[in-house]
């Protein structure tokens, strides 16, 4: 085996530690240095070895490193050596992944970094004789030419000398970047028959669960009982539109994932069908997938039986990848950071399990290393897929996952995708060209989020960005540098064979000019009186007085003026709120007329779109004599795309605008079906002063469409969560158990189905009285950022890290982070934060899980569904009571859906959120932890959110910190004795 190549020029190494830096100098001396010392010496050193170069630059208060990075970033070498494998971006995380002695990782110093580099280069050298070595060697040569700091060492490890290049008969460097030429192709198979309807008995489900767990597994009676009741969702349906719905609340630690997988896997195998398991976030999808290793230990078998599905925008688009590679190669041979990033993506694409760029096996820190723009540029961007017209269609990773899902036993999806798929199936009717055959069995995990997910999935938004995006989808880039493909380009291969498409297509493109033209946001902002009075400069692109040139811009202007007129103060540039909203009614005449004009313009667009769809549909029948299978699929995809991306949206907008023609009736006691309102907010990428504005329509009760399009057509639906019910929210004289179940059924949509749901509840097996403590801090001012930051610092010091800080507002999270990151890191307690550290949530949780004394600040996504068992999480601190946001949606729902008790409605939402937050703390029987609420105004009626046995005590900060330290120190002492 070849020797491991040397590192470049005795490279120094930098590792942040305890508020200072551990430094291995070029002379091999291990020192502790300040950031100022490093900044002074760094220009005189060769490229240092670091972990996560952009993060290191931020810590040193240096500008972001250029691309290619001049530093030797171990994460880049890791991505090259072990593609499609995630790792926490820390010394401990890398060390554990590479098998370094764990004793060296407890207090790592900078001299660990060269050892990590040698370990990676050694693995690279071991791959020299593998089948993938020629591609890897060609990429290493190309990356060296592009200025990759690891290029020389990587080439040497792969047997390539400083002046060598890959031999003539081997794959060449530029060809190695073209990963789309090497990916497997899918092949069409015959349509599958409908699944059978044979049931799964509770005893069968229990037996499968025992087989999954294996001999010697911990006995969990609640898990066994949960599995038995979950099997009820797989009974044969007896009446159309009346599924078997099971509501099963399973406390934390019950083991509900394997509990429902047991009957689901039996039903799928027995009936030749697919069970869709849906959860709330991509991170939770990954957690469920990891649990299924116990059912399918062999990775190849698991890929056959289990598929993870996400929205198209998450996946690598091979056509966009090809365009990006061609652009990067056209820029020359050297110094192009894009080539390095694309080479690593090419390696990853050949190894990835699913092609997900943003939540799969591409590490979450990759975007920070090479720029999120690189990934956005190669992703399957919204509405741009040309399906069968794409030269890479049969290698497409999205299409691979769609086809695998058709034959899988279990599909792990998220609520947003599942609901949108169900809505499209309802829209398309019996169309056999659907991307996915309609599932008959669903498991809705994290079921307390069903109503929230349905609210997003079935809402309607007529905003500037949405309308401009539709114009871009129809007309293309309109002279900009964007690679957006318009409808003509999508249909150009069909126009050759079906010329009668030309006339309606031309009419569509002409009518699309009624949608917002490029620069619309700046024109709207420039017309606002607040800008004129304050002389706020807004670039319109012409230097002339802005004018609104089409009906959409006139409507947006009228909506914007109503928000500005009816909100308190000026929302422009306000530091406290990034968005403003107001009621649609009463509606001024200017808005009424603008809505009428917009509705007419949209109907002029909808008519030729319908004609286009009709003529495409007609071609499938009249041109059957010459249409081959690929062309038929191409036409079917075009029909589906136009319906979903354009026609359904335009029809929805027309309906919403049409309902505005009559003034809203103001009758007491009337329950509306929809909530219509106007909102103005700032979106990512918009300039100061420019805000998107739109008309929004939400269902008053979003579980109505959920029940209609997903639950009712299904045969069985299991809705499960640790927090389905607010079981102790009633008064002592109420029948609180029934009230809690009734509220749970309302949130899950069960009340809209013919038959009542099966109800079941299974308690957590944990001894919360022994394993946990809970405090409300009584002497911290909730509106004082300094006091709040001081409280978090004190609590995190008391727990010695291992903490999760939760916030109800991103602005407060960022302010607390800014104030406490330095003192915590000086104490050896690294701090990370959602919305601050540019990494996805899964990576941040991985860091928290792997670093015993790290702490993490987060918002809602960290409150729900994060699983960090063991000592890595021993404190959860919540900044304030998570009351529902007092916006228009909540106002209307608390009026009409609270049963005349709006206060109880608010309390129930807050209690359920507190239960979710507390649930992050204790994840196993060995865990011990403390929950702290930093809100002295917390009413006692909310304390029933905590598990039975937990006594919530109100203490001052210093007294609570002392008790936290004593409680957790006792835990540490016990662990040391056991060790």
TrEMBL record:
SUPFAM superfamilies: P-loop containing nucleoside triphosphate hydrolases. InterPro entries: ATP-dep_Helicase_C (IPR006555), DinG/Rad3-like (IPR045028), Helic_SF1/SF2_ATP-bd_DinG/Rad3 (IPR014013), P-loop_NTPase (IPR027417). PROSITE patterns: HELICASE_ATP_BIND_2. Keywords: ATP-binding, Helicase, Hydrolase, Nucleotide-binding. One of its GO terms (molecular function) is hydrolase activity, acting on acid anhydrides, in phosphorus-containing anhydrides. It comes from the Bacteria. GO terms for biological process: nucleobase-containing compound metabolic process. Gene3D superfamilies: P-loop containing nucleotide triphosphate hydrolases. Pfam families: Helicase_C_2. Residues 209-494 form the Helicase ATP-binding domain. Belongs to the helicase family. DinG subfamily. This is DNA helicase C2. It comes from Komagataeibacter medellinensis (strain NBRC 3288 / BCRC 11682 / LMG 1693 / Kondo 51). The lineage of its organism: Bacteria, Pseudomonadati, Pseudomonadota, Alphaproteobacteria, Acetobacterales.
